[in-house]
Design goal:
Layout: H1 6-18, H2 21-32, H3 37-43, H4 50-89, H5 108-122, E1 126-127, E2 133-135, H6 136-139, E3 182-184, H7 190-199, E4 203-212, E5 223-233, H8 238-253, E6 260-267, E7 270-283, E8 286-289, E9 298-309, H9 311-316, E10 325-332, H10 333-341, H11 354-360
Parallel strand pairs: 1-4
Antiparallel strand pairs: 2-3, 4-5, 5-10, 6-7, 7-8, 7-9, 9-10
The protein binds 3,4-dihydroxyphenylalanine.
Length: 383
Amino acid sequence: METPDKPRLDAALAAIAAADAEALEAQRVAALGKAGWITLALKTLGAMTPEQRLVEGPRIQGMRAAVADAITARAAVLDAAALDARLASEVLDLTLPAPEAPRGSVHPVSQVMDELAEIFADLGFAVATGPEIEDDWHNFTALNMAETHPARAMHDTFYFPDVDAEGRPASNSEAVGRQGRMLLRTHTSPVQIRAMVQKGAPLRIIAPGRVYRSDSDATHTPMFHQVEGLVIDEGIHLGHLKWTLETFLKAFFERDDIVLRLRPSYFPFTEPSVEVDVGWQDVGGRRVLGGDGDAPGHGWMELLGSGMVNRRVIEFAGLDPDRWQGFAFGVGVDRLAMLKYGMDDLRAFFDGDGRWLAHYGFTAFDQPTLSAGVGSKETGIRA
Ligand code: DAH
């Protein structure tokens, strides 16, 4: 049926078919918007006679549907074209190498501590920890170093100032309490006491961690790392100590020809005390651990302190020394790392220099395991 709206509808449909996104929206507003011509046409229905409405209603509704359908169809075409254009312009070249991601590394000290934990776990040792801010009793007294003991002087201790209840420096030790002054622990040995007090006996632990001494040069830093070992059980003797250290050092340095020499020594907390030397040999002008320390071209290097736990220490920790015996040892973790991985200046350990860390550090994949080896890097073992 030819009506006065027919040319207008045809024009609108033609414009819609050719519209871009902006023109399409203009067409929608012009026809179907609040004041659009189809909207206005629909409003005329109310004033019509029922007979007129019967004819005009479907006609106008038909125009509305035709325009709405045309707009939907055109929008779909425009959307598809826009997507094609985006896909064509956003090229992702999967053959390019991945961008360089920032990488951290595992510090050799952390790596060596993980290696120690792995080796000693295999021997049935648990890892124990203690506070770095320690009291005088755990750090000295319970380790058989009474207040006047001369060995205390060798520890270059960082003490915290004594303060009274008002925070004023106290001139006498009243404010300090039974456990004594607070200090930065000078060795990991106080963890021996804490482990015995908390866990009782029998006991097999290692205690790696930070220790502090007022000392600084190429081989000493005010903070460094030690690992303590402690075994408490019935019938423990020096043979157990020697076997354990030998087994540990062979696994750690990954050499079967590691030889040890036990030298009599003195530590207040062990009796008898032994200092342990490890043999080295000259290989092409380089000192390498292993071999027979006494042969020509070979030698001994002092490595760690150890001994049978003094019965007074076992008593201080609340155990019966007639029933329980044990051995203990203490060794510098930084030194172990230097020997195994070939660094020669301890200070560089704590400089935080990215180049040093990139060179000597380990990746997260270098997990020490007994099956795959505890030294996942080329080692530069030397004495
Ligand atoms: N605590 C000692 C130090 O820092 C090292 C040591 C020696 C620890 C003998 C021990 C030991 O457990 O038995 O110098």
